[in-house]
What does this fold into?
Amino acid sequence: MRRKRKAKIIATLGPASNSEEMIEKLFLSGVDVFRINMSHSSHDEMRKRHALIRKVEKRHNRPIGVLADLQGPKLRVDAFAESEVLLVPEQEFVFDQDPTPGDSTRVYLPHPEIFGAIEIGHNLLINDGRIRVKVTEVAPGKITTKVIYGGALSARKGVNLPDTVVPLPALTTKDRADLKAACEDGVDWIALSFVQRAEDVAETRKLVRGRAGVLAKIEKPSALTDLDEIIPLCDAIMIARGDLGVELPVETVPGWQKRITRAAREAGKPVVVATQMLESMIEEPVPTRAEVSDVATAIFEGADAVMLSAESAMGAWPIKAVETMDAIAISVEGDPLFKGIISAQRKAPEATSADAISSAARSVAETLNAAAIICYTGSGSTGLRASRERPEVPIIALTPSVKTGRRLALGWGLHCVLTQDAKDQDDMVSRACRIAVQEKFAKHGDRIVITAGFPLGTPGKTNMLRIAAIKE
It folds into this structure.
């Protein structure tokens, strides 16, 4: 199963895509990683979906990544006495800690942490930002606000606090239980929602204990402030533009998307662009031109992966959405401008043998017009270093670890193949040549560039580069 593109596709599973047949069709259409949204999945449902993915994986002998996305702390208003109330601009509206059903003047806000953190002048955004209120007074158990943008408000609508760092734990009780179940079931990535500070990621890493990669979702303004500390602590980044676009002025989100993408690329951490990428395809068989441009922009920036949410989870056209995303990526990567844009953002290698070898491999492969770069990788770090270089030629990551192969399914340009460690240098070369031909990347007379570490099979010891010719 060779993809014709280097950017990866993540698809969310849901009511429209829960069957083994549909999961297989999505995989064949181009999905590299499947997302299980723990906001809408019980542990039994998560295990069932994971098992179906592994059946498809076994049938096609290709590592498939599985990402469990934790719900995170959800802030919501409580109930109203009527089905909905209408808030009008300039009126006063109160949030309090009285559990009595609310009305058009007040509502119960069942999050005491907010009352101690919020300040006069801070904004509260309700129902995905459709309603905005500004704090005019703070008293024990009471927040008085003035309505800026009004509208209809009903029970359990979400609350965003763009100006306030709320002292909530990074992981709720539900998140901890979900994380434990997902790690025990063997998922490859844990996505941490609503990251506010680097400590949130550090706490999650302690609980994961290396059993999965930790992906930090950037969707809070406070995370942007702490971005330089967050990126080194996580294994990957997701630009979750839904909540980020609610809490930030929408016109600033594209700029942040570019800055986060480039920062993650510089650090060699996979970066995912997510939310509303092909939103209209929830109902329509074709996307809007603006959506196509949105996906293309992420690919031009060199994002490792682009993600489908409701489009594949509950949409009417899940397969067509994946095929559309696949076609956009192929087209962009074949565009004459793509090579120059990607090359201009390439960072100089760090002063390590592994970085130097990976950088040299890209340069040699492009100079020789090699068929592929073959990298032997045990932990996956060598594969990600090769990916960070964004070479023009394909990268085949050879690993004896199925866990590593599945995790690398998220990495740009990485075609992962499971194989035993080479016995010696001759075996290393012959195995690389044989697999390059078997996987249809090379043919007789082509050259490949091989990177590996000696002693063979020692993690983190990439220190060798070899050029080999494919012989009959």
